[in-house]
Design goal:
The chain is of the alpha/beta class. The chain has 9 helices and 11 strands. The protein has one domain: 3-Layer(aba) Sandwich (Rossmann fold), CATH 3.40.50.720. Helix 1 packs parallel to helix 2 and helix 1 crosses helix 7. The radius of gyration is 18 Å and the shape is globular. The model has no long low-confidence stretch (mean pLDDT about 95).
Length: about 260
Protein backbone atom coordinates (compact mmCIF):
# COMPACT_ATOMS: atom_id res chain seq x y z
CA UNK A 1 0.00 0.00 0.00
CA UNK A 2 1.31 3.43 -0.94
CA UNK A 3 2.43 5.72 1.87
CA UNK A 4 1.46 8.70 -0.30
CA UNK A 5 -2.10 9.95 -0.68
CA UNK A 6 -4.03 8.41 -3.56
CA UNK A 7 -6.50 10.63 -5.43
CA UNK A 8 -9.24 9.27 -7.70
CA UNK A 9 -10.60 11.77 -10.25
CA UNK A 10 -13.45 11.23 -12.70
CA UNK A 11 -13.52 13.24 -15.92
CA UNK A 12 -9.73 13.70 -15.92
CA UNK A 13 -9.26 13.97 -19.68
CA UNK A 14 -9.77 17.74 -19.91
CA UNK A 15 -10.55 20.96 -18.10
CA UNK A 16 -10.74 20.98 -14.31
CA UNK A 17 -10.15 17.22 -14.00
CA UNK A 18 -6.99 17.34 -16.13
CA UNK A 19 -5.57 20.36 -14.28
CA UNK A 20 -6.44 18.89 -10.89
CA UNK A 21 -4.71 15.59 -11.66
CA UNK A 22 -1.59 17.49 -12.71
CA UNK A 23 -1.68 19.69 -9.59
CA UNK A 24 -2.05 16.72 -7.22
CA UNK A 25 0.82 14.90 -8.94
CA UNK A 26 3.02 17.98 -8.42
CA UNK A 27 2.42 17.68 -4.66
CA UNK A 28 3.68 14.08 -4.71
CA UNK A 29 0.27 12.41 -4.48
CA UNK A 30 -0.55 9.42 -6.66
CA UNK A 31 -3.46 10.03 -9.01
CA UNK A 32 -5.96 7.75 -10.72
CA UNK A 33 -7.70 9.47 -13.62
CA UNK A 34 -10.75 8.12 -15.41
CA UNK A 35 -12.46 9.29 -18.60
CA UNK A 36 -13.81 7.91 -21.84
CA UNK A 37 -10.93 9.38 -23.91
CA UNK A 38 -7.95 7.21 -23.06
CA UNK A 39 -5.76 9.13 -25.52
CA UNK A 40 -6.16 12.30 -23.46
CA UNK A 41 -5.37 10.37 -20.28
CA UNK A 42 -2.23 9.01 -21.91
CA UNK A 43 -1.26 12.59 -22.78
CA UNK A 44 -1.82 13.58 -19.15
CA UNK A 45 0.31 10.67 -17.98
CA UNK A 46 3.18 11.82 -20.21
CA UNK A 47 2.89 15.35 -18.84
CA UNK A 48 2.99 14.07 -15.25
CA UNK A 49 5.95 11.81 -15.99
CA UNK A 50 7.81 14.85 -17.31
CA UNK A 51 7.43 16.76 -14.02
CA UNK A 52 10.50 17.32 -11.81
CA UNK A 53 11.57 14.51 -9.48
CA UNK A 54 9.22 13.93 -6.57
CA UNK A 55 5.94 13.89 -8.45
CA UNK A 56 3.32 11.23 -7.85
CA UNK A 57 2.45 8.43 -10.25
CA UNK A 58 -0.54 8.52 -12.57
CA UNK A 59 -2.79 5.59 -13.45
CA UNK A 60 -5.04 6.20 -16.50
CA UNK A 61 -8.23 4.14 -16.72
CA UNK A 62 -10.87 4.27 -19.44
CA UNK A 63 -14.28 4.43 -17.75
CA UNK A 64 -17.62 6.14 -18.27
CA UNK A 65 -19.29 7.35 -15.05
CA UNK A 66 -22.67 6.56 -16.58
CA UNK A 67 -21.70 2.88 -16.42
CA UNK A 68 -21.56 1.70 -12.80
CA UNK A 69 -19.73 -1.52 -13.70
CA UNK A 70 -16.96 0.38 -15.50
CA UNK A 71 -16.59 2.75 -12.55
CA UNK A 72 -16.42 -0.06 -10.00
CA UNK A 73 -13.88 -1.87 -12.13
CA UNK A 74 -11.78 1.32 -12.28
CA UNK A 75 -11.84 1.57 -8.48
CA UNK A 76 -10.82 -2.09 -8.20
CA UNK A 77 -7.90 -1.40 -10.55
CA UNK A 78 -6.87 1.59 -8.47
CA UNK A 79 -6.93 -0.46 -5.26
CA UNK A 80 -4.93 -3.24 -6.91
CA UNK A 81 -2.33 -0.73 -8.13
CA UNK A 82 -2.00 1.61 -5.14
CA UNK A 83 -3.66 -0.30 -2.29
CA UNK A 84 -6.08 2.46 -1.29
CA UNK A 85 -7.98 5.60 -2.29
CA UNK A 86 -7.84 8.55 0.09
CA UNK A 87 -9.74 11.18 -1.90
CA UNK A 88 -12.51 10.76 -4.49
CA UNK A 89 -13.20 13.76 -6.72
CA UNK A 90 -16.48 13.37 -8.61
CA UNK A 91 -15.71 15.84 -11.37
CA UNK A 92 -17.12 14.36 -14.60
CA UNK A 93 -19.92 16.50 -15.96
CA UNK A 94 -21.48 18.03 -19.06
CA UNK A 95 -23.23 21.34 -19.68
CA UNK A 96 -26.28 22.50 -21.58
CA UNK A 97 -27.62 25.84 -22.76
CA UNK A 98 -31.02 26.52 -24.27
CA UNK A 99 -34.72 26.21 -23.53
CA UNK A 100 -35.69 23.06 -21.66
CA UNK A 101 -38.68 22.41 -23.92
CA UNK A 102 -36.49 22.65 -27.02
CA UNK A 103 -33.77 20.30 -25.78
CA UNK A 104 -33.59 16.88 -27.38
CA UNK A 105 -34.35 14.05 -25.01
CA UNK A 106 -30.99 12.48 -25.82
CA UNK A 107 -29.27 15.63 -24.56
CA UNK A 108 -31.36 15.70 -21.40
CA UNK A 109 -30.63 12.05 -20.68
CA UNK A 110 -26.90 12.49 -21.31
CA UNK A 111 -26.76 15.38 -18.85
CA UNK A 112 -28.77 13.62 -16.15
CA UNK A 113 -26.92 10.31 -16.55
CA UNK A 114 -23.56 12.08 -16.31
CA UNK A 115 -24.14 14.88 -13.78
CA UNK A 116 -26.46 12.98 -11.47
CA UNK A 117 -26.12 9.23 -12.03
CA UNK A 118 -22.35 9.59 -12.47
CA UNK A 119 -22.00 11.25 -9.06
CA UNK A 120 -24.25 8.67 -7.40
CA UNK A 121 -22.27 5.81 -8.95
CA UNK A 122 -19.01 7.39 -7.79
CA UNK A 123 -20.18 7.82 -4.21
CA UNK A 124 -21.77 4.38 -3.93
CA UNK A 125 -18.67 2.73 -5.34
CA UNK A 126 -16.12 4.51 -3.12
CA UNK A 127 -17.88 4.64 0.27
CA UNK A 128 -17.44 0.91 1.09
CA UNK A 129 -13.74 1.20 0.22
CA UNK A 130 -13.28 4.25 2.44
CA UNK A 131 -15.15 2.63 5.32
CA UNK A 132 -12.83 -0.36 5.04
CA UNK A 133 -9.80 1.96 5.15
CA UNK A 134 -11.06 3.90 8.17
CA UNK A 135 -12.15 7.06 6.37
CA UNK A 136 -11.52 9.34 3.45
CA UNK A 137 -12.63 12.50 1.67
CA UNK A 138 -15.22 12.86 -1.08
CA UNK A 139 -15.19 16.08 -3.11
CA UNK A 140 -18.21 16.76 -5.30
CA UNK A 141 -17.75 19.31 -8.07
CA UNK A 142 -20.85 21.49 -8.13
CA UNK A 143 -21.40 25.03 -9.40
CA UNK A 144 -22.32 28.52 -8.24
CA UNK A 145 -25.50 28.13 -10.32
CA UNK A 146 -26.81 25.39 -8.01
CA UNK A 147 -29.11 27.89 -6.23
CA UNK A 148 -29.59 30.26 -9.17
CA UNK A 149 -32.77 31.08 -11.04
CA UNK A 150 -31.21 30.02 -14.31
CA UNK A 151 -33.23 30.50 -17.50
CA UNK A 152 -31.67 28.84 -20.57
CA UNK A 153 -29.40 26.74 -18.37
CA UNK A 154 -32.09 25.22 -16.19
CA UNK A 155 -31.21 21.56 -16.80
CA UNK A 156 -27.57 22.05 -15.84
CA UNK A 157 -28.38 24.22 -12.82
CA UNK A 158 -30.92 21.67 -11.58
CA UNK A 159 -28.35 18.87 -11.86
CA UNK A 160 -25.91 20.89 -9.74
CA UNK A 161 -28.67 21.63 -7.20
CA UNK A 162 -28.96 17.86 -6.85
CA UNK A 163 -25.20 17.50 -6.31
CA UNK A 164 -25.02 20.23 -3.66
CA UNK A 165 -28.10 18.92 -1.85
CA UNK A 166 -26.65 15.42 -1.82
CA UNK A 167 -23.34 16.76 -0.48
CA UNK A 168 -25.07 18.31 2.53
CA UNK A 169 -26.93 15.11 3.33
CA UNK A 170 -23.96 12.81 2.74
CA UNK A 171 -21.82 14.90 5.09
CA UNK A 172 -24.10 13.90 7.97
CA UNK A 173 -24.61 10.33 6.79
CA UNK A 174 -20.89 9.62 6.58
CA UNK A 175 -19.41 11.61 9.46
CA UNK A 176 -19.51 8.61 11.82
CA UNK A 177 -17.44 6.69 9.25
CA UNK A 178 -14.75 9.40 9.25
CA UNK A 179 -15.59 10.27 5.63
CA UNK A 180 -15.73 14.00 4.99
CA UNK A 181 -17.72 15.50 2.10
CA UNK A 182 -16.89 18.83 0.47
CA UNK A 183 -19.15 20.68 -1.97
CA UNK A 184 -16.99 22.61 -4.46
CA UNK A 185 -19.01 25.52 -5.87
CA UNK A 186 -17.12 26.38 -9.03
CA UNK A 187 -17.67 29.57 -11.01
CA UNK A 188 -17.13 30.02 -14.72
CA UNK A 189 -13.83 28.47 -15.76
CA UNK A 190 -11.75 28.64 -18.93
CA UNK A 191 -11.91 25.08 -20.27
CA UNK A 192 -13.34 22.87 -23.00
CA UNK A 193 -16.53 22.63 -20.94
CA UNK A 194 -17.96 25.87 -22.38
CA UNK A 195 -17.13 24.90 -25.97
CA UNK A 196 -18.51 21.38 -25.70
CA UNK A 197 -21.73 21.96 -23.80
CA UNK A 198 -24.88 20.72 -25.48
CA UNK A 199 -27.83 22.72 -26.73
CA UNK A 200 -26.94 26.19 -28.03
CA UNK A 201 -23.35 25.41 -27.07
CA UNK A 202 -20.38 27.62 -27.76
CA UNK A 203 -19.55 30.87 -26.03
CA UNK A 204 -21.75 33.86 -25.38
CA UNK A 205 -20.35 37.36 -25.76
CA UNK A 206 -23.14 38.88 -23.66
CA UNK A 207 -22.23 39.71 -20.09
CA UNK A 208 -19.02 40.32 -18.20
CA UNK A 209 -18.72 37.25 -15.99
CA UNK A 210 -15.07 36.80 -14.98
CA UNK A 211 -13.51 33.52 -16.06
CA UNK A 212 -11.04 31.56 -13.93
CA UNK A 213 -8.13 29.56 -15.34
CA UNK A 214 -8.42 25.83 -14.65
CA UNK A 215 -5.15 25.99 -12.71
CA UNK A 216 -6.76 28.26 -10.11
CA UNK A 217 -9.63 25.81 -9.61
CA UNK A 218 -7.20 22.88 -9.44
CA UNK A 219 -5.13 24.56 -6.73
CA UNK A 220 -8.31 25.25 -4.78
CA UNK A 221 -9.37 21.62 -4.98
CA UNK A 222 -5.94 20.43 -3.81
CA UNK A 223 -6.13 22.84 -0.88
CA UNK A 224 -9.67 21.72 -0.01
CA UNK A 225 -8.56 18.08 0.01
CA UNK A 226 -6.41 18.81 3.07
CA UNK A 227 -9.14 20.70 4.89
CA UNK A 228 -12.51 19.84 6.42
CA UNK A 229 -14.57 22.64 4.93
CA UNK A 230 -18.17 21.86 4.04
CA UNK A 231 -18.48 24.08 0.96
CA UNK A 232 -15.92 26.06 -1.02
CA UNK A 233 -16.37 28.95 -3.46
CA UNK A 234 -13.09 30.25 -4.88
CA UNK A 235 -13.59 33.95 -5.56
CA UNK A 236 -15.29 36.90 -3.92
CA UNK A 237 -17.35 37.28 -7.11
CA UNK A 238 -18.64 33.72 -6.75
CA UNK A 239 -19.45 34.16 -3.06
CA UNK A 240 -21.36 37.37 -3.82
CA UNK A 241 -23.21 35.58 -6.62
CA UNK A 242 -24.27 32.82 -4.24
CA UNK A 243 -25.63 35.42 -1.82
CA UNK A 244 -27.42 37.19 -4.67
CA UNK A 245 -28.92 33.89 -5.82
CA UNK A 246 -30.37 33.45 -2.35
CA UNK A 247 -31.70 36.92 -1.60
CA UNK A 248 -32.26 38.44 -5.07
CA UNK A 249 -33.26 35.45 -7.22
CA UNK A 250 -35.47 37.40 -9.65
CA UNK A 251 -32.82 40.05 -10.32
CA UNK A 252 -30.10 37.43 -10.79
CA UNK A 253 -32.44 35.39 -13.00
CA UNK A 254 -33.12 38.35 -15.29
CA UNK A 255 -29.38 39.04 -15.64
CA UNK A 256 -28.80 35.34 -16.36
CA UNK A 257 -31.49 35.45 -19.03
CA UNK A 258 -29.70 38.27 -20.87
CA UNK A 259 -26.40 36.38 -20.61
CA UNK A 260 -27.58 32.98 -21.83
CA UNK A 261 -30.43 33.85 -24.21
Amino acid sequence: MSSKRVIFITGASSGIGYATALEFAKTGAHVVGTARRIDRLTQLQAEINALPTGHGDFLPISADVQNVDELRHAIDQAITHFGKIDVMIANAGVGHRGKLADASWDEVQTLLRTNIDGVIHSVRAIVPIMKQNGGGHIILISSVVYNMTAPYTSIYAASKAFVSSMARSLRLELQSDNIHVTDMLVGRTESEFNDKRMGAGGRNSVGKIPIMPTEKVAKGIVMASSQKRHAVAFRLFDRLLLIGNRFLPTLIGKRAMRHYQ
